[in-house]
Structures are given as structure tokens and as C-alpha cells.
Write a structure and sequence with these properties.
By secondary structure, the protein is mainly beta. The chain has one domain: Immunoglobulin-like. The strands form three sheets. It has a four-stranded antiparallel sheet with strand order 6-5-8-9, with no helix packed on it. Strands 3-4-7 form a three-stranded antiparallel sheet, with no helix packed on it. A hairpin with a 2-residue loop joins strand 8 and strand 9. It is elongated, with a radius of gyration of 20 Å.
Length: 126
């Protein structure tokens, strides 16, 4: 975009260094990264989620499954950040095992995109 000021001096205005960083309409928003980092205590997992920049605040559902059974879930309503992290507590009785973390990007009519990652939690002695 060019802006011309008095005296024939022109300026190049850039709002974004990278055109991929420009906010996108809801139908173009995508999950770009999902990562699960179990903490050394074996009791919690930090979930990292990255989205493309957006014009309208998106909603997400985060679900933690073990053996296809839902252990934990949370909803992120109208996120204001395109990079976020949340901490989920693992089952207190026996947290060791293999887990699947699923993140669903929601639209008014259902799930727009779903991404999953798998991770293991070691048995830790108290």
C-alpha cells in the first residue's frame, strides 16, 4: 500500500512483515500446531496450540483420551490469542499410560478442523 504525503514524498506502509500473518476470516482459520508436553511430575500435561491469525475470535474444544475414554476436556471460548497453552491434570489414581490429545477448531455448524497428538506418561513413584 502506498501513501503519498504533501511534497511528493511517498511511504510504503506494511502492516504485516509476512502476508501469512494477516488475520483471516473464520473459514480460513486453521490449527497450525498442537503439542503435548507431559511435566516431569507425571501428573500434568501442558498443551500448546497455535492457530493462523484470525479476524473473528475462534472457539476450540480440547479433549484428553486414554484408551479411547475421555479423561479430561475443556473449551476455549473466543480466544484472543492465536498461540496459547493450557495445563491439564492427569487422573490422580493412575496417570501412567498412553494418551491422545485432540483439539477441535469449531464453527457454528460443527467442527472445522481436528488435530490429534499422542504421548505417553511414565509411571512415577510418589
Amino acid at each position: 500500500m502506498k501513501f503519498v504525503e504533501a511534497g511528493n514524498v511517498s511511504f510504503d506502509l506494511k502492516f504485516f512483515d509476512d502476508p501469512n500473518e494477516a488475520p483471516r476470516p473464520p473459514e480460513e482459520v486453521r490449527i497450525t500446531e498442537v503439542r503435548a508436553d507431559p511435566l516431569p511430575d507425571g501428573r500434568r500435561v501442558v498443551v500448546h496450540i497455535k492457530l493462523t491469525p484470525f479476524l473473528k475470535k475462534p472457539n476450540l474444544d480440547v479433549t484428553l483420551l486414554r484408551d479411547e475414554i475421555e479423561e479430561r476436556s475443556l473449551s476455549i471460548i473466543e480466544s484472543i490469542e492465536h498461540e496459547m497453552q493450557v495445563t491439564l491434570h492427569l487422573p490422580s489414581d493412575d496417570p501412567a499410560g498412553s494418551y491422545t490429545l485432540r483439539v477441535d477448531l469449531l464453527r457454528e455448524d460443527g467442527v472445522q478442523q481436528s488435530e490429534s497428538v499422542q504421548f505417553d506418561v511414565e509411571n512415577t513413584a510418589r
